[in-house]
Amino acid sequence: MSDQRPAMPPVTDEQIIRTFTFITIGFCGGLVMVLGLGVLVLVPGGVVRAPGLLLGAVLGLVSWFGSQWATSRAPSRSVRSPSLRSGSPAGTLAFRGIVVAEVPALIALIVAIADGADVGSVVVAIPVAIVAIIVNASGPGAMRRHLDLVSD
Known about the structure:
mainly alpha, 5 helices, elongated
């Protein structure tokens, strides 16, 4: 008996896009829950003030432009190894963008919890991070751009 597995058919671009659509929904849903918990439970009676809004705007800009920057270059040759499945380099770009988009939003949550009153950073940074994930990191349009970038 041979231990060889049957060859798997190549993964199509549409399968990769469909898979990352579900991943995007999961990460964005998690951020929506963090927003709800942060505003309603972790910082009870929190108010929105100008310093929090300003911090949220700065963190939102970092999330937006950082995720664009992180996904704008193709991964290194080591990630493009032929032994990996065809969607791996595009997936690497997507997850890189998700991480860079989410970190500022989570920093906003930590700042709001530490402040104990001002939730302005959370109500700005988390929605921007959600949009950055969809548009720049792993939404269908972003995945098409990533696939085009790594197809060279």
